[in-house]
Every structure is written in structure tokens, then in C-alpha cells.
Amino acid sequence: MPGRAARPETAAATSPSSDAGGGPVQDGDREGATIAALRRIYRHALLHGGAHPEAILRARRLEWFLRLGCQAERVSTRVEQARRQGNLTYFEWLIHDARLHLFHEYLILHSAAVAGAGGCLLLPGPSGCGKTTLSARLLARGLGYLSDEQVDLDPLTQEALPFPKALTVKPGSFALFAGVQACATFAAGSWAVKYVDPESLVPGCVWRSRARVDLIVFPGFVPAATTVVARVDPPATVERLFTHSANLAHHKERGLDAFVALARRVPVYSLTFGDVDDACDAVLDLVEPLS
After folding, report:
1. pLDDT in tens, 203-227
2. Are the C-beta atoms of residues 193 and 168 closer than 8 Å to each other?
3. Mapping DSSP to helix (H, G, I), strand (E, B) and coil, where does residue 113 land?
4. In this model, does residue 64 exceed pLDDT 80?
5. Cβ neighbours of residue 56 closer than 8 Å, sequence gap 6 or more
6. Mean pLDDT throughout 77-88?
7. Mutual angle of helices 88-102 and 30-41, in 10-degree steps
């Protein structure tokens, strides 16, 4: 049964976290620069203004972790190493892992989510399946941004809650974000990641309220593949949601029942694609009847 997310390695950074995509910081400033970069990455998740009281509480709990939780982890040699290196990806894992405990009342899925007038579209899948690039294209086509990494699903109402962290862009998608200023970057050896503020893509796109899930699409990027959409039946949907759940073990039968109810209620599809614009068109064709 799925549990915590796998920890990224804490390899020595050859290009440490930088200030809004600028030059590398000096060793003495790296820890402060890392915290500043984390605040940029989670800026929209920490904003309180105009938010629902529940969202304010969630933001304050997350802010508490950013402010105190990282310091409390000093006993760990691996975390201390990550602090010295400015390893944003490791701290990102720490924050997401902590959310399994901070927000345990929700089913937490490894999924992207966007929303519109018709409700919420979930895009569950593993790293590299195309969640982030597809989400970014859907924002450009008028949908609102909830998350590209973790989705908190209310098991009673089947509503997704916003977790609008910066989009995590990996090397295979860098070309699709050419000309977009990263709010933070991290590189280790030959591997790198950029964090992109969603509102630098589409101003005002961050969705700040709950949205009931009304469509699920499991994306699967395959280089040079033709776009293919296929219906997924409820049993297969439950199996896939099970695979992409981060805390189903905590919810047990209650969580499984929530997945079964969701799979029976909403239309569910798999999407194989090699071209993100074609995939975006295909998804919008599925979204349109729900609008």
C-alpha cells in the first residue's frame, strides 16, 4: 500500500538554489536563500487575504512548518546536509511529507488539479507523466490552478482543496517554459528543476476555494505518441487512485469507500499523448460537457 513519498537524494549541489533564477548564492547565505526560495515556491499557499477561514488555518499550519519545522529537523544528518546545500527538492519532500500528518483528515493524492465552472479536474499520476505541463497548458486555456503535485480530497464531499504551490518543472519540459521566469531553481550534477509561479503564466489563475471533483483524467506522456483517450471503468479507477494515494493506510476502508463512490459518480479517462497541445484539446473536449 502506498505511503510516504520517496525521498529525493541529497547529492551535492553543483548549482545551488538561486534568487528568482539569478546567480548562485554564497555558502554563508545559502540557508537564508533556501528559506526565501521556499517562501516563493509556496507563496500562494501561504497567502491569507480574502481566503476562506479553513484556507487561512491551513496556510498558517504550513507557514508554521516552514518557520519552525525545518529547524526542528536539525538532528538528521541528511537534513542538515540538505540545509547546507540549499536542496530545495529535499525540503519540498519534507513539506509534502509533513502535510500527510498536518492534513491527515483528507485523502492526499499525487495529482495535479485544475478547476472551472463545472468543477474540478483531477490529473493523478507519477512523476514524469505530464501533469505539470498539461496543467500549465490548461491554465492558458482558462482553467484555474489548484495544484500540480498534491491534492487534498475531502472523503465526505469529494471536494478538492487548493494547494497552489509553484509548478515543479523538470528538464524534459524546460523548452515548453522557455521565456518564463522561474521563482526558484535547483541543480545537482546533471539534474535540475525549476519552480514556476502559476500567476507568472496566467495572472489571476490561482483557484482559492474548494471544487467538487467532476472529472478524472490519468495522463501518460509517451514521446512521439498519438493522442489517445480511453474510458476507464470504476474498478480500474479505484485501483489507480489507490496507487496514487499518499495516505490511504490512514483512512483504511473509509478512504477506499470514498474512492469507490468517486469512481462511480464521475467520468474517468486515460490520456496517452506525445504532444501537450493536442492533449490539452482532448482534455477540453472532455471538460466542455461539464461546464
Report:
1. 999 998 899 999 999 999 999 999 9
2. yes
3. strand
4. no
5. 48
6. 60
7. 50
CA 103, 34, 49, 117 dihedral sign is negative
Query: Which of these, 38, 162, 29, 33, lies nearest to 89 by C-alpha position?
Result: 38
Please list, in sequence order, all residues whose beta carbon lies within 8 angstroms of the beta carbon of residue 186, skipping any fewer than 6 positions away. 13, 15, 16, 17, 86, 87, 88, 89, 192, 193
Task: Look up residue 224 and give its amino acid.
Answer: A
pTM for the full predicted model:
0.83
User: Do 283 and 134 form a contact (C-beta atoms < 8 A)?
Assistant: yes
pLDDT at 121 over 70: yes
234 vs 47: which has the higher pLDDT = 234
Bridge partners of 245, per DSSP, are 109
Helix (H, G, I), strand (E, B) or coil at 286: helix
Round to whole Å and give the CA distance between 67 and 161.
23
146 close to 211: Cβ distance less than 8 angstroms:
yes
DSSP string for residues in 142-210: TPEEEESSEEEE-TTT-EEEP--PPEEE-GGGGGGGTTPPPSEEEEETTEEEEEE-HHHHSTT-B--S-
As a dihedral over the C-alpha atoms of residue 146, residue 151, residue 154, residue 155, rounded to 10 degrees, the angle is 140
Task: Provide the residue type at 199 as one letter.
Answer: E
Residues facing 1 on adjacent strands: none
Domain boundaries, the chain: 13-102+165-201, 106-164+206-291
Architecture of the domain delimited by 106-164+206-291: Alpha-Beta Complex (3.90)
Alpha-carbon span 269 to 217, nearest angstrom: 5
**87 with 38: CB under 8 angstroms?**
no
Question: How far is the C-alpha of 21 from the C-alpha of 73, rounded, in Å?
Answer: 27
Output phi, psi for 103, to 5 deg.
-125, 45
Cα separation, 283 vs 138, in Å, equals 9
